[in-house]
Amino acid sequence: MKKISMDDMVGYCNQYGFIFQGSEIYDGLANTWDYGPLGTRLKNNIKDAWRYYFIQRRNNSFEVDADILMNPTVWKASGHLDSFSDPLMDCKECKTRFRVDNLLDELDSEIHADGMSMEEMSAYVKEHNIKCPKCGASNFTDVRQFNLMFATQRGVTDTTTNTIYLRPENAQGEYVNFLNVQRTMRAKLPFGIGQIGKAFRNEITPGNFTFRTIEFEQMEYQTFCKHGTDEEIYDEFKEYGMNFFKMLGLPGEKLRFHDHEKLAHYAKAACDIEYAFPFGWGEINGTHNRTDFDLTRHSEFSNRKLEYFDNTTNEKFIPYIIESTYGVDRVVLAVLFESLAEEELEGGDVRTVLRISPKLAPIKLNVLPVVKKRHGEKAMEIYNLCKRHFMTTYDETGSIGKRYRRGDAIGTPYAISIDDETIEDGTVTLRDRDTMSQRKVSVDELIAFILENTSFIE
Ligand code: GAP
């Protein structure tokens, strides 16, 4: 079986309508990507899986949809204005700018540059005579910090007092609504607030397709809890994340934990789950013990008491927060890499097949009349019935073999062919994408079977 490279993946996504270059007709805008019809379905299915796993299935779990634009004091309080930055240096010869920790990690995956200070990185670059990957010179500026938030102006005058920011993470929308949710849902600790939404970062070295972009989507989940219970909840969410990915069809051997040495300004402990992409291990999730940092800071800056009153002990305190965060685009990319295959069949034929979990497949069923003139009407009747239950397509052009292949290539797990027997006794031939085996079923059985096999319920 052929190994799928990043170039293969970009080509596949473009050819089959999963992901296109952003603003393509204007030659694009670097590192922006638009999801096409199938990519959008896949992304939505991953978000539905998250909603099922994090909001629906958990106790005391609530979803919000906060605005992207927030009062700028939020970012002062959260620490993002002062310390949400990346270490950068420029090549003095060719003027290319690099994110130093990424550059060092790429050169030597053992050093874990995210644990180094700016001074340590500068010293490492000099001592190891690091060369510019673009021009080969060893002549860099010192390492300095560069803030990642996108700033924009509110109103018509261009003054710093009008500066507002595109959120760099969803989490703050959940923190500033802590009291609102607690009050309206009469929530008792521990409880969770989750959100799915866009985030923006002025990443200086974006790349690897949708893995690192300047606009991306997050699924973030914050558990508010009492100090003392935080470490247990932190451990629970590390495992919960692993199980979530396995439920999406990512195998355990392609996933690993990476505990952080250097912690973000808000964290007491942090651990990523990484997936083995073709370019190396890449973070797709993070679990963070954010302590009471965020709510304490928002209390200070807003002059509002973001406290919880425990009526069993008569105590008032600021809760701790355990964060479990997922990058939607990275999860989509991992699922695509895990599923896409070029398979050689008996007889030497090659088929492109997306062996994606039926739960996530953009289209669940493909309806195919064997002979359009004779079976088209019946096939259309069954298509109209099935599409009320799940995403269904109807395909009448080309040989039946070609139509099966088209469905395989976009990951449609089931196809039915409609023939004379369907007209006589109502049965259809159900074909399985992965095994390519076929069997006869009634239409009622078919609908129940697909609903059961595409459901997240376990
Ligand atoms: N609220 C915490 C937070 O934002 P993070 O580790 O910086 O933590 C969370 O980001 C997740 O968002 C990451 O695990 C990753 O999946 C995704 N992510 C972060 N930066 C990204 C980028 N530039 N492009 C795509 N996804 C990104």
What does the model show?
This protein is α+β, with helices and mostly antiparallel strands. It folds into three domains: 6-82 and 149-335, BirA Bifunctional Protein, domain 2 (2-Layer Sandwich); 85-147, Herpes Virus-1, CATH 3.30.40.230; 363-454, Rossmann fold (3-Layer(aba) Sandwich). Helix content is 33%, strand content 27%. It has 15 helices and 23 strands. Strands 3-9-10-16-13-12-11 form a seven-stranded mixed beta sheet. Strands 20-19-21-22-23 form a five-stranded mixed beta sheet, sandwiched between helices. The protein is globular. It starts with 5 loop residues before the first helix and ends in a 5-residue tail after the last helix. It binds glycyl-adenosine-5'-phosphate (GAP). Glycyl-adenosine-5'-phosphate binds next to strand 10, strand 13, strand 16 and helix 11.
Give the topology.
Layout: H1 6-16, E1 19-21, E2 33-35, H2 37-56, E3 61-63, H3 73-78, H4 80-83, E4 85-90, E5 97-99, H5 100-107, H6 118-127, E6 144-147, E7 151-153, E8 163-165, H7 171-175, H8 178-184, E9 191-200, E10 215-225, H9 230-247, E11 255-259, E12 269-277, E13 280-291, H10 293-302, E14 308-310, E15 315-317, E16 320-327, H11 328-339, E17 340-344, E18 350-354, E19 365-369, H12 372-386, E20 392-394, H13 400-409, E21 414-418, H14 420-425, E22 427-432, E23 438-442, H15 443-453
Parallel strand pairs: 3-9, 19-20, 19-21
Antiparallel strand pairs: 1-2, 4-5, 4-6, 7-8, 9-10, 10-16, 11-12, 12-13, 13-16, 14-15, 17-18, 21-22, 22-23
The chain binds glycyl-adenosine-5'-phosphate.
